[in-house]
Design a protein that fits this description.
By secondary structure, the protein is α/β, with parallel strands linked by helices. The chain has helices at residues 9-15, 44-56, 68-76, 136-144, 159-165, 175-184, 210-225, 228-235, and strands spanning 20-26, 34-35, 41-42, 59-65, 82-86, 95-111, 128-132, 149-153, 170-174, 188-190, 196-205, 241-243. Helices cover 32% and strands 29% of the residues. The radius of gyration is 18 Å and the shape is elongated.
């Protein structure tokens, strides 16, 4: 029996109504995707998209983006069929989610001489925090920050350069991305710990209904339990992320 023979027809119709699975790949989050030496997309999200297309027995089209905000807008506009995005209640108005497949830490970065030493010291009057526009960090901090001010960079990878150019006090983002920037730019340091944990899931446009996301939920659980996700994280030497626990 082939893999595709077990797919409910309603799920295939919901996930690939045009006969091609259009998967949004976000280069703005290095934990999820990057480029190989030839400039082709690679990463855990790419591997998951390829495996899903194989099981659905449809062609795969990788639609690339540089920010999570742009991915969510494409989902809302029904321009992609699946995406790999952080679970967030605001996005949930337009997106149906699987459970998380990986969890990622969000961290703060400051200059070496900054008086800020702990995450709890960031939310104070006069503190300006750089964050990628539309990212999960932006959405979370918009809800949680009460006294500091958020300043939005165009994309998450641009946060540290934006933070430096605008002479801001703090940069917020994917811990791995900030660690790489701290190695790239002298005189920066990460605050210990994390200010949030991001649950990265697979999502599909809400307008598609439940059939597609019901299949995605089972697919994600199998990809976690089989070791597929763990092997992908290891293959791409990803640090700062862990396989999410099984859904309840």
């Amino acid at each position: 029996m082939s893999a595709c023979s077990t797919i409910p027809p309603a799920a295939r119709e919901a996930l690939a109504p045009q006969g091609t699975l259009r998967a949004a790949i976000n280069f703005g989050n290095p934990i999820l995707a990057g480029k190989d030496a030839a400039g082709q997309p690679i990463g855990v999200s790419v591997d998951l998209a390829r495996e899903l297309a194989r099981r659905l027995d449809v062609k795969l089209e990788l639609v690339t983006f540089t920010s999570a905000g742009a991915v969510v807008e494409a989902l809302k506009a029904n321009k992609v069929d699946i995406a790999f995005v952080a679970i967030d209640p605001l996005r949930g108005q337009d997106v149906l989610y699987s459970a998380a497949y990986v969890v990622i830490e969000g961290a703060y970065l400051v200059r070496q001489g900054s008086p800020i030493r702990r995450n709890e010291e960031v939310d104070r009057p006069g503190i300006r925090v750089a964050v990628g526009k539309g990212s999960a960090y932006d959405l979370y901090l918009t809800r949680e920050i009460k006294q500091a001010t958020l300043e939005r960079a165009p994309t998450s990878p641009a946060v540290v350069d934006f933070f430096l150019a605008q002479n801001l006090e703090v940069a917020a983002g994917v811990k791995q991305q900030l660690e790489a920037d701290a190695r790239r730019v002298p005189g920066l340091r990460l605050l210990d710990g994390r200010f949030m944990v991001i649950n990265q899931a697979m999502g599909t446009p809400r307008v598609r209904g439940e059939a597609g996301v019901a299949y995605l939920r089972g697919f994600v659980e199998e990809m976690k339990s089989s070791g597929f996700v763990a092997q992908a994280l290891q293959r791409y030497k990803i640090e700062g992320a862990a396989v999410a626990p099984a859904a309840p």
